[in-house]
Amino acid sequence: MMNPAEFANIAALEENFWWFRGMRDILCALLDPIARDRKLNRVLEAGCGTGHLSRFLEARYLWSMVPLDLAAEGLQYGRSLGVERMVQGNIATLPFASNAFDALISMDVLVHFPRGEEATPFAEFVRVVKPGGLLAIRVSALDILRSRHSQFAHERQRFTKERLLALAGHHGLRVLRCTYLNSLLLPVSFTKFRIIEPLMGGPPESGVQPVPRWLDNLLYIPLRLEKSWLAAGWNFPLGQSLLLLAEKPRQ
User: Fold this and answer.
1) pLDDT tens digits along 32-77
2) Are the CB atoms for 46 and 78 separated by under 8 Å?
3) Is 199 exposed, middle or buried (0-12, 13-18, 19+ CB in 10 A)?
4) Domain 6-247 architecture
5) Are strands 174-181 and 87-88 parallel, antiparallel or unpaired?
6) pTM of the prediction?
7) For residues 126 and 173, is the Cβ–Cβ distance under 8 A?
């Protein structure tokens, strides 16, 4: 489970912080054409944190979102925002019937399971989605990019594209798209995580911290560029995150 102390940082910055804005832009660039072509009504966000993303997606696509998280801290923030239908539950044992949702969204949640244990929640994701339904799953990528923020957030593993595709294949999903994200800042992140942090030392700490507006805007630019690239149908060969879009086979 994510470090409960991180929820306060996320709740304070989730609306406008460069990373959250940019990753929402990218997610929408990939979901927009699917939302136009498919009628999705009931959508589960498995591991919703504060519920902010569920509220955003419901407003954008008019989906009936069901936000679920194990942590009471995240649900408390969500309810204070007026997020509806929030459910406390474990993604490894989802409290829903099979084939209950038209789609499932899960952003950066599987990484909190120890390596080798991700198959259990993934199987639950597949179980609760209807045949022909959509799964959108984002995870942190590449072990070499593990950082002090990773330790603070209680991240237990990071993925490669091959591992994520193998997981999808094992559960019989039809892959629609699988690409690395947050790629243009990779050289900066590698320098920070593998050179600067080891030299400076220090305890684990959250990377979700306020920065000057000029820096926030500067860091946001690469993600906006990635959004355009991905919307045009191109993928990235490496990056700090991975996004999988897949379909559960029709029976």
Assistant:
1) 999 998 889 999 999 999 999 999 999 999 999 999 999 999 999 9
2) no
3) exposed
4) 3-Layer(aba) Sandwich (3.40)
5) unpaired
6) 0.95
7) yes
